[in-house]
Amino acid sequence: MESICVLDWRYGSEDMRNIFRAESMVKRYIDVEKALLYGLAKAGIAPEECYKVVERCASQISAEEVYAKEKELGHDIASLAYLLGERCGECGRYVHLGATSYDIVDTAWALAFSDALNLVLKRLRKVIEMLIEMSLRYADTLMVGRTHGQHALPITFGFKLANYVYELSRSYERLCECRRRVVKGKMSGAVGTMAAWGDKGLAVERYTLEYLGLEPHEISTQVAPRDGFAELVSDLAILASQLDRFALEIRELSRPEIGELYESVKRIGSSTMPHKRNPVIAERISGLAKIMRALVTTALENIPLMHERDLTNSSSERIMLPHAFLVVDQMLIDMEKLLSVLYVDEEAMKKNLDLMKGVIMSEAVMVKMVEKGIPRHVAHKKMQELAMTMVSGENFLERLLRDEEVAKIFSREELQQILDYRKYLGSHRKLIERAIVYARTVLSKC
After folding, report:
1. What is the C-alpha separation between 59 and 27, in angstroms, rounded?
2. Is residue 270 among the annotated active site residues?
3. pLDDT of 71 above 70
């Protein structure tokens, strides 16, 4: 393979790659130049017919030509402007008039962001919908709740999944809100004052961006404010980290000594160990999340540009922005696949829940002791003492009944009721439903 970057062939979809290919970006540059001619014409600066002339002559220019010209001139957008100026006859004199290169570049980025976000949100919506369905299916499937890697209290698998429904819905909402701030055009000239267009600058901006279906930034320097780019990359990194959290959960729970979940995919797990069943999809999600988080530093570094701008953002953004979207694109593809092949071993969940022989219900007993009039701190101390002094093979019910103080407070039947996992799930059903309602509300708005 000739390509150096694996994003060219291994990670990310063709749909996302097509958004950021050189031909696609140059086409957007041309679209913005055409829109500018339209804006100049509507504002009375260029002849009305020049928009149509430029539209025809621009259709013959390829990305290959632009970047060949760049080798001569040292500037990609100037190269495009020269090519258009040379090929569009009398109307070529108005090409790029009053604009700076980043009027073209940043407006083209906005168009690319719009397309890329459409794809990300479509994939994320699918993942959220799959998680909603699963959280309802497993709403009452008992399993161990773990904190600090230790057994904590009983939960249900559906409750665990509903937490991801909520978190990923927040990312969906975050990206929708970010979109309103970032997918905006910039058409304001060399330092942002629109000086070249005299008193017609706002008209040029309005007509140009209306043609492209974009709102303008309220004010800018030579470039659109980079806090927006940083917000976008940060929001994508937050999403990536949420996917990583889910992937880590799968990886942990698929360990043989836990065995509650695993990827049911027929594949070679190891080149040398035939028995291996590795969580490869989940591990790829976690690996790509590291790249995504690293890109945030670059995005933040691009906010402080000198004066009305310098060029330090340009080179890094050519790498950072397409890579950010392609990485997240692959992660969402993998997340959908992971959910579709995820095997849930309910028997293993039940077995693991019983590993501690009921001691994880110590809080439930403590609460009931308080209801019987025992001070909470006294009850807590008692439960800790009993939990730490169980003998081998003994279950927590037997240990409780062996204690004289506890045996005076509760009968065997009462303790059996208290130690029933299903009676200590709190409001899990209502919380699952609340998370789903939130998700569906978010999905309906954007």
Report:
1. 9
2. yes
3. yes
